[in-house]
Amino acid sequence: MVEDNELNRLRELPSPPPRETARRKAVRLALNSFDAEQKNMSPTQGSSGQRRLTSIVKELWSRFMEKKLIAAPAIAGMLMVPLAGYISWEFINDRRFGPAVEVGPLEEAEVRKELAGNRQKFDDKREVRQDNQLGRGIAENKSQEFDQVTAADEVVAASPPVSAAQPKAMKRLRAQQANKPVGGLIAAEPSVRPVEAESRDRFQSHADNPVKTTTQDPVSTFSIDVDTASYAFVRRSLKEGLLPNPDSVRVEEMINYFPYDWKGPDSAEVPFNATVTVTPSPWNADTQLMHVGIKGFDITPAEKPHANLVFLIDVSGSMNAPDKLPLLKNAFRMLVNKLSPEDTVAIVTYAGNAGVVLEPTKASERSKLLNAIDQLQPGGSTAGEAGIRAAYQLARDAFVKNGVNRVMLATDGDFNVGPSDDKSLKRLIESERKSGIFLSVFGFGRGNYNDSLMQALAQNGNGTAAYIDTLAEAQKTLVDEAGSTLFPIAKDVKIQVEFNPQRVAEYRLIGYESRALKREDFNNDRVDAGDIGSGHSVTAIYEITPVGSPAVLNDGLRYKQAAEQAKPAGDRSGEYAFLKIRYKNPDADSSKLITTAITDQNAVSGLDAASDDVRFSVAVAAFGQKLRGTDAVANYTFEDMGQLATTARGADPYGYRSEFLSLVRLAGSLSPDTKPRQ
Q1: What is the side-by-side order of every strand in the sheet holding 307-314?
Q2: 488-520 burial, b for 16+ CB within 10 Å, e for fewer?
Q3: Interior CA angle at 675 toward 670 and 676, to 5°?
Q4: Does 305-486 match 212-300+489-550+561-670 at the fold level?
Q5: In this model, does residue 660 exceed pLDDT 90?
Q6: d(C-alpha 20, C-alpha 27), whole Å
Q7: What is the C-alpha separation between 205 and 172, in angstroms, rounded?
Q8: Spatial distance between the Cα atoms of 439 and 408, rounded to a whole number of angstroms
Q9: Which residues contact 549 (CB under 8 A, 6 or more apart)?
Q10: Is the pLDDT reported for residue 144 higher than 60?
Q11: Phi, psi angle pair for 248, to nearest 5°
Q12: Is domain 305-486 classified as CATH 3.40.50.410?
């Protein structure tokens, strides 16, 4: 009785569902075995002896293709279409695609062997059908369909299994990617791909700034940068389970992504104020950090000038993706709702050629503006030059004196019609900039994202470059920070630091590699530099090595007099450096100068004594350097910088800093150098 009860309980248990790969393989093997048996054996007892319909169809089709039915064209014509349709339906019906399934090495080998056999069968059939024109067309189409299916299956087979140690977000990502369209069919793709797989995204490569010896090269000069595109792109890469391309990481843009509460100027007469802090370095006990925070004057809403904006929107075929044109349209809808009634907006699109969608229209006519945005559809090539020229013409037609005149280019950066090289487009933007019309660039999507070109256009158009990957980022860039994005308070802002060789033996600037200027460029008002918008903050960090520190990397000069190495003109032994900021008012051609001496009064005894903003920005600087592979932070772990950022998170009303902490953890889990916790 006991055994009977056990058997009854087992009988009532539901059978486990079959694995998808096992089911497909079993069905194929069974059908092949069935066909083979029908060719070699007589019908078994109880069988009608009738062959399967698919076998009959395949044999008739084969005979037709071998010209056995060519003598009867009428019959051939009647049979050809239904037979071809039925075979196509059978082929597709036999290939059912589902989510990616984890397979072991043996199962993977069997799958690949089966795929190779099927490929050979299709190739053999294609050769047989070459004699008939219609048959050749069908064979080639079937072969293309098989190529797509095979490629999809090979991606599934190659997909690495997701281990329990990987974040839940990556498991959800892989589940979503399992139903991604590939060539019109449904297939899966791996959740973790190497950086090299993203080779169509284009980034300008820059080597890290070198360590410089103060006695030889005491002056550092660079243009400020308020762009944030790099941080958003890095964030997207990490959330997709990829370590970012090192060239996509610009440390200054990572740092300046976050708002900081630096002390601002008291009035618009001097448009910004500098806050300097000297602290110990968290990644090297023998060096220090000289931290410079600049805060721009914040224009009140009543003082903001009228804006004349031209939306230059890429509607080419490459924008046909959910994270491109649809996201772009929603982002610009947000901006329209932020504008004042007297502001004007025009819309120019470009694909195979440029077209004016909307002439300059008051923002008070919001329904008209929003309707024009909603009607945008992708298609065609990318006539970038024609679009830019048309946008500048509209901006000139509606030019607002003493106002904001700006073209806002939204694209994935794929300019393939017109002067597609960076230099030609830079010259075009430079010539228009002199008329008082600036250019801002907003990037969308990835896969063919041309960051290099977008950076060049924004820097030469006296504008900012941002990357929008989510609606939350659109809200941050175009709504929360609309003042700093649209309303400049100073242009051609340059920074120059002269280090005191009595105090500082060596230094290196963290980031700003693409913004470096020659020493003589600082006083040359013809040299273009970055702009600062209303209320914007800019942060720059130097790592400095004190005189006598064991961290000094360069040997002293044999033939340089010691007195010349260590004694500057006058007694300024209490100074670390001398900071100079040169800028122009938005409508001026001549620059003004702000100077600040950096002394012991700017130093703190320990990093813990610095403000939350200083410590958090230092953590971000370490993170950016780590992602670039900078040697200086080789021994400073993701866990270390996460702990520093956690203690310095402070007020975080929008959750930007909390999100940063999650990115640090993701990078740590993806990095091959990260050691598991004991």
Answers
A1: 354-362, 344-350, 307-314, 404-411, 438-443, 465-467
A2: bbbbbbbbbbbbbbbbbbbbbbbbbbbbebeee
A3: 90
A4: no
A5: yes
A6: 11
A7: 33
A8: 6
A9: 286, 287, 505
A10: no
A11: -80, -10
A12: yes
| Contact yes or no for 646/661 (Cβ under 8 A) | yes
Domain spans in the chain, listed from the N-terminal domain onward = 212-300+489-550+561-670, 305-486
Angle (CA) 198 199 205, round 5°: 110
The Cα–Cα gap between 163 and 174 comes to 12
Long-range contacts from 471-477, C-beta under 8 angstroms, 24+ separation: 471/327, 471/330, 471/331, 471/334, 473/232, 474/327, 474/330, 474/331, 474/334, 475/334, 476/654, 476/656, 477/228, 477/331, 477/442
Which residue from 579, 565, 571, 600 is spatially nearest to 499, judged by alpha carbons?
Answer: 579
pLDDT digits (tens, 9 = 90+) for 488-542: 888 899 999 999 999 999 999 999 999 999 999 999 999 989 888 888 899 999 9
Long-range contacts of 51-57 (CB under 8 A, 24+ apart): 54/90, 57/83, 57/86, 57/87, 57/90
6's tokens: 């056990």
In 471-513, DSSP assigns E strands to 488-499, 504-510
**DSSP of 514-540:** GGB--GGGGG-TTS--EEEETT-EEEE
Both tokens of 76, joined, read 């051939």
* Helix, strand, coil shares, percent, the chain, to 5: 45, 20, 35
105-128 helix and 133-158 helix, angle to the nearest 10 degrees: 170
Structure tokens at 261: 């509460």
In angstroms, the CA 187 to CA 650 distance is: 45
The predicted structure's pLDDT at residue 421: 60
Q: How far is CA 510 from CA 207, 279, 293, 503, 657, in A?
A: 11, 15, 14, 19, 20
Say if residues 279 and 611 touch (Cβ distance below 8 Å).
Answer: no
Q: In 3-state terms, what secondary structure has residue 346?
A: strand
- Reported as a single tens digit per residue, the pLDDT across 459-474 is 888 888 999 999 999 9
The CATH number of 212-300+489-550+561-670 is 2.60.40.1230
Q: Which has the closest alpha carbon to 292: 578, 545, 606, 591?
A: 578
In terms of DSSP H, where are the helices of 95-250?
105-128, 133-158, 168-177, 229-239
- What's at 546, amino acid-wise? P
Res. 301 pLDDT band, cuts 50 70 90: confident
pLDDT tens sequence across 282-297: 999 999 999 999 998 8
Closest CA to 29 of 145, 152, 118, 98: 118
Q: What is the pLDDT of residue 339?
A: 92
For residues 547 and 272, is the Cβ–Cβ distance under 8 A? no
One-letter identity of residue 59? E
Average pLDDT, the chain: 77
